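Q: For a teaching session next week I want to show students how multiple molecules come together into a single three-dimensional assembly. I've collected the sequence lines for a complex. Could you give me the predicted structure tokens for the whole thing so I can convert them for display?
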Amino acid sequence: MTWTISERAQKLTSSAIRDLLKVTERPEVISFAGGIPTPRSFPVDHMRAACDRVLSQDAHAALQYGPTEGYTPLRVWIADALSKHGTRIDPERVLITTGSQQGLDLLGKVLLDKGSSALVETPTYLGALQALKLSEPHFQPVPCDEEGPVLEGLAPLQLTAARMLYCIPNFQNPTGRRMTFARRCALLALAKAANFPIIEDDPYGALSYAGDEVPSIFSQDPEAVVYLGSFSKVLAPGLRVGYLVAPKALFPKLVQAKQAADLHTPSLNQRVIFEAVQGGFLDQHIPRIRALYAEQCRVMVDALQRELPEWVQYDTPEGGMFIWLRLPAGNDATPLLAHALQANVAFVPGATFFAEQPQTNTLRLSFSTPTPERMYEGARRLGGLIRQHCHPDERV
Ligand SMILES: Cc1ncc(COP(=O)(O)O)c(C=O)c1O
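A: Of course. Below is the structure for the complete assembly, covering every listed component.
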């Protein structure tokens, strides 16, 4: 049998990070590659009790098919949580998704045609590029400064042709950057003027070390934004429960796309999440996770300050789990990774996070899981490799 693979599928590529994760599973490898939550943040006893309650009180429904839109009490809880930050959100606009990753897939299918223009940050989340790529859009990278995306650099035609702007305003994956409130408002104004929706992906918003939150773009105008949220970083990614909140005009199409994809997100998992969050558990739990990541970040930055040459640039994140390193122009982090793997240390070369024209002199470090000892040792090895294999001057 010769299998004819569709043109669309032929263009798919494997995620460089998922491939790298296979190597970094070896215990001797100090991995700054993953970007997964630390298991220390999982409230295991609390989740066990939530599972027990669901299975003893509501087993038949939990083990049965359910509505595509999701478990109503969870939708109501999410709408209430989001309403605290501004306009009252209608639970009818909340769609429970199988991770926020599924939200990206559904939005690509509903909003993009082959060749249609999708504005994306430079750089951006690799998983979003993968999900949207299935709809074969034309990615239009938007240059970014330290405040966030700068749409003003784009020609008016590039704005009016856009079908969406995808962005991650809080502690972005991969740069760790948080968009300022002024920039959020400026993006919204430009998007409304040019008539394209903003897709606001917000898995890390709760992970601000100081506990301060910048209002979401969505809270400023829920009619112009699709908001994606997730329980992956605040409870447990393995349950695969996320959500999106979409304007009325879009909602039925997203539901239909989800019907085709998986009928619904697992009934049991949705109920377990609801049991876990109702009653205010996250109000105590999130400060614990914030403290955990703040400490991981403090150690990582200290290790980098001690071990990296001063010509490697990075910003200290205010939340989340990533640090973005910039080597002088002309260096390439991909061959550096080959040397790093030989020295049993791993990171993700930055090139993989660019839709177009990769900046090869960048790399992403995740500090969520390693112990302090391994962070210091990993930074020492990385610093040595950078001194050995990279040049300190800019070469274009
Ligand atoms: C920016 C961003 N969006 C979405 C996701 C997917 O998360 P989920 O586990 O909710 O599917 C991730 C996962 O790391 C992410 O970094």
